[in-house]
Amino acid sequence: MLFKMSLKIEHAKFNDLDALHRIERECFTSEAFTKEHIAYLLESPNAVSLVAEANHEIVGFIVGMIENYGRTTVGHVYTIDVAFKHRRAGVGLRLLDELEHIFLERGVKTSYLEVRIDNKAARELYRKKGYTELEPLENFYAKGRHGLRMKKELKK
Ligand SMILES: CC(C)(COP(=O)(O)OP(=O)(O)OC[C@H]1O[C@@H](n2cnc3c(N)ncnc32)[C@H](O)[C@@H]1OP(=O)(O)O)[C@@H](O)C(=O)NCCC(=O)NCCS
């Protein structure tokens, strides 16, 4: 556990790709992003990719997208992954805190995300961070795998 370890949140580098892909496969099975997709995200100018490091090891990451719709800029929490053995030690909260901070700095006032309806851990994390539930997303992930959209108004 990380309770007494210091955690650093940094911008992800392309060199982190293997570590991020390893954690992604640990976190998701059929829905895991491919290595190519993570590489694309790491290079995307609209993406904010952050890693959490403890003792020089990457223990989790988050990717947010900054999306422009006309005059409105919104943040989209695209994925958040914490390595199994480092869960429940506040890593997810820290990653989300830092992403929201960067969203605000970049002019984002509203943050959105989608989550599997049966993903209790993630839904609790988002609820704790002030996200409220919007509409259900039927078959969003695959047939029978429903999602839920959540939203938070960000404040400085
Ligand atoms: C969801 C996830 C990112 C949470 O990361 P984490 O570092 O373990 O979360 P934290 O330790 O910061 O937890 C913060 C709060 O979230 C809630 N939470 C986290 N895991 C939980 C669980 N298994 N059950 C219930 N609540 C949970 C709790 O309220 C917790 O606060 P507490 O520990 O004081 O009770 C992690 O479980 C994960 O990587 N899951 C697999 C990938 C995934 O599903 N990502 C989300 C996609 S939408």
What is the CATH topology assignment? Aminopeptidase
Class of secondary structure makeup: alpha+beta
* Full CATH superfamily name: Gcn5-related N-acetyltransferase (GNAT)
Assign an overall shape. globular
Give the CA-CA distance, first to last residue.
31 Å
The appropriate CATH architecture is 3-Layer(aba) Sandwich
User: Which small-molecule species are bound to the chains here?
Assistant: coenzyme A
Oligomer: single chain
Strand proportion, as a percent range, falls in 35-45%
Q: Outline the low-pLDDT stretches.
A: none
What's the helix count? 4
Characterize the largest beta sheet: strand count, sense, and whether it forms a barrel: 7 strands, mixed
